Amino acid sequence: MEEERPIRKIIHVDMDAFYASVEQRDNPDLRGLPVAVGGSAERGVVAAASYEARKYGVRSAMPSAIAARRCPDLIFVKPHFEKYREVSHQIRDIFFEYTDKVEPLSLDEAYLDVTTNHKGLPSATLIAKEIRERIWDTTNLRASAGISINKFLAKVASDVNKPNGQKTIPPEEVDAFLATLPIERFFGVGAKTAEKFHRLGVRTGADLRLVELPLLLSRFGKAGRHYYQIARGIQHSEVQSDRQRKSVGVEETFSTDLDGPESMMSALWKLGERLEYRISKAKIKGRTITLKIKSADFETITRSQSVSEPIDDIHEIMEIAQQLLQANMPSYSVRLLGITLGNLGEKEVSEQLTLRF
After folding, report:
1. Which residues bind Mg(2+) (predicted)?
2. Is residue 1 part of a domain?
3. Cα-flanking dihedrals φ and ψ of residue 7, to 5°?
């Protein structure tokens, strides 16, 4: 008997070329031009690229020198993270008007569970459309969205009609959608894992569904059960909203495995953005920073470092997290990274501060 497929109403909202779009919004001279945020023509790494730059193959986490060769007219712009955080908070305020179940993945994307919502709206599709319109009216920035029964499908769907679009995969269309989905776009399948699937003759979701669980377990270890379930649209992971706990942490399981130091370091800094938001919201400090790394084969290592005095400064925290990653840089593909701040204490605070689809 096949496992029951949980059905929720999940929206994945993803801002379109967020950092670059903010810079183009605030500087009319950059509009319509290929822009890279971060780095320079000689050194550094691209943090974000405008859609005009992406046409030349410029991508985030790409070494700036390679980006400059691909696009000789590329304009490098210094990042303004305080401004991006301010805009991100505006966007999150909009999310919380609809649901308390909001899970930020970074400054520019988040999951929302609108199975029940503050406005009592029956259609997740209409909620996503309304949220995107609200974001435009508030920030003058465009967002795309995916709507489906779980986080994986919602995230995949948000890429379908980018930029400035949305895609809904209702329950009755899940199997057909997964059947034609390339194996490379399945949650947790990176380049090396995709090669293993190709050798098995698996190139689409329909192919994956034909592979029996024992074979998947023998070839992919613990990850085999995950692939078996996801091919059937089964994912139990819920939207994790912020909450008080003994530690404050963020982690992400990547839809495509990370390969190489540059992609891992870029992903680590994205996690740092989320961690900063949670630390600020919880008004806490901590003494222990823990890095979590999970391989494509579901093997997990954690490495921690403690400091003498509690800290809440994200730059100090990320410097330690970066050192931990550099000292334990995996030679294998990574499917999950996480950062946790533990041994918590409260920050000193001024007394003046008080569905239908």
Report:
1. 14, 108
2. no
3. -125, 115
